[in-house]
Here is the input.
Amino acid sequence: MFRNQYDTDITTYSPQGRLHQVEYAMEAVKQGSASVGVRSKTHVVLATLKRFASELSGDQKKLFAIDDHVVIAISGLTADARVLSRYMRTETQHHKFMYEEPMPVGRLVLQVADKCQISTQRASKRPFGVGLLVAGVDENGPHLYQTCPSGNYFEYLAMAIGARSQSAKTYLERTYTTLADADVEALVQAAVTALRETVASSKDTELSAKNTAIAIVGSDGAPVRILENAAVQPYIDALDSTPSAADDDDDDEDEADAPAATPAVAPDAPAAAPEGGSPAGGDAPAEEPPANGAADMQT
Amino acid sequence: MCRGVLSCFCLLDHSQYDLSSTTFSPDGRVFQIEYAQKAVENSGTAVGVSCKDGVVMAVEKVVVSKMLVPGTMRRAHLVDHHSGLVISGLISDGRQLATRARDECSSYKSVYDSAIPGHVLAERLANFAHVYTLYAYVRPFGCAALLGAHDDTNGYQLYLVEPSGVSYRYFGAAVGKGKQAAKTALEKLDFKSLTCREAVKELAKIIVDVHDEAKDKLYELEMCWVCEESKNMSQLVPQDVVDEARKAAEAAQDDDSDMDDDE
Amino acid sequence: MSGLRLTEGSRGPGASVAVEGAPLTRTQVPYVTGSSVLGMKCADGVVIACDTMASYGSLARFKRLTRMHVASPNCILGVGGDYSDFQQLQTMVDAEMTAQYVANDGLSLSPKAIHAFLARHMYHRRCKVDPLWNSVLVAGFHKGEGTLSLVDLYGTAYSSDVLATGFALHLGLPLLRNAHRPDITVAEAKVVMNDVLKVLFYRDARTNDVVQLATVTAAGVEVGDMVKLDTEWNHKAFVQGARAGDESSW
Here is the structure.
């Protein structure tokens, strides 16, 4: 009668113990434009690709400063992200008020993840259709976290989410070990280069100062910096001298394609399907839909 | 009249009985709860033992990317100074159980000015899980919790709280993917003479043995204990102790497979 | 119906229940109270000191009660004022520290954060016109530096090298200020504390002569035993009265 009767209600498990509605929410993240995060021993950098709803419109916001020491990049539904960012701003302010100290990043992310979980367990709600990369510093140094609509969160050394993020992840997996001791400039360049991977195969999109936004936060005590437009240009210019991995050589290309061909072992399958069959199992679409197919509300 | 038509419709479609935890099937089963248990059975194995000088719990954490910071995706949670739990199943659901357990601990403390006994905590946590099986507007938890606790009257205790809302006290318990094999291994242990230090090694061995190398390559081992060595405080078993136990278990496994090869 | 209508006056100052015709009141006086607490920041740590009596009005109701509470391995509270409110504070701080323990993320509250936490709570209660009737000294040692702060029932919060609460604000603080040097050591400060506690015992009728000292240093919190002060009662003035030998008239 129905193709799948278990996939319309957030409170219904499939016979395999999966929650399809949660998995679909995870798909919304993949529809959003890409966000990349990288971390060294002293800094975290986020690089994001901004979409424009039309030639006449401004860009959809990708980066939200939460506090002096925390910034997030979003992929998925911007409106949902605004709800989460407002929550995060309230929580960091509350912590500062209560303890006169900045909020530890891990505790903030934990609260966000718990908030996300709530809306996966009630029939009256839907999961948040957005994934976050949270960059921040605290007493233990710099941190990069990813949160998912499923209520899962992970701490990463380097990570990418959003449309065609697999290409960026493949690039990062090859390079992330060299980033621990990188200086800020190198870190930003690495993030931008990884971001470029997500548009490398696209004919109509190219990384530019206009559609790239960067956030930097470091354990030097300086508040979050967000770079846009002219400030991004130097990193875009520097890109042309570093050949894209896709053009680089054939071996790399094979490597980049490999995970997409066998989604079950793709390193990101977990991010999408953290086991227990929760988010997107093996039958999730391996290929991400084309960027221009996304609705305006997704960034 | 309208009702008659509707129920007729439902009866025709047998599978309509498994869409809500508020629906019994004709043979008295609640499928949604069974499906929630299925979510647990797909997840990394968790094992626990209550032994001579403490209670130890271990859980297999499948690592989803090599770029993850070690130790992230916590599956072992402390809930009070004297109790902790490990989660098998959906991690995010498990955190809600841990949060509830913490709330129960602190509310018991504020009322009685003493630490919550293990059986009370287990019962309250099970009640909490059970409530989520009663209403159509929520779903059951997709996780099970192995709860370890110590109190002066009852000593060391291990409980297993399941999505259905049942909880039993165990000497040795296992949930998750490899629970059958793990249970068989647990049955061979002598819980009365086993010390926690030995239990760490035994649990590491069980997890290493039941781990499916073909399916999930990378995994971490996370352990939590409440024991004499930790002064009856709940804590994560120190990483070096866990690593050592895991290495020994892996070495033993290699030896075994070598021998098999020889034969 | 005439009936008995209680008024504020007939209910006494401690009334805390709503009564028809009377204004709603909360705690207006403390009942069982502890007296002063002293604190001094030293080069190598912090020392706090207090006596161990809890009075019921002018009655020396309880002796040998500790008025200190170890909040964390590197932070201790010394509390004056209402003893049951102090116990409530302990419960609150303990619950908060348990929450920190179970988070198990390698982070804990610094003494400064504990002080801020208490200050927010005390001010919150005072805004409800239902204060916790205490003065709290917060002594800690964090990242190689001692911290000494105070918060009172109004939520007033400040830090200083020397601090005192209660009667010692008048009698003890000047003595502490005179004795304090930036390079004073914990060992030296302990001697000073003993002297000041002695003065307080002679002059403040709400103290006893059994005292307790605590230090916070790089090694952590160390709470001393309750010690009986070595007091001298054979001064001429004590034996014969303050005006012995004084022939003059007022």
Observations:
- Residues 1-13 of chain B have pLDDT under 50 and may be disordered.
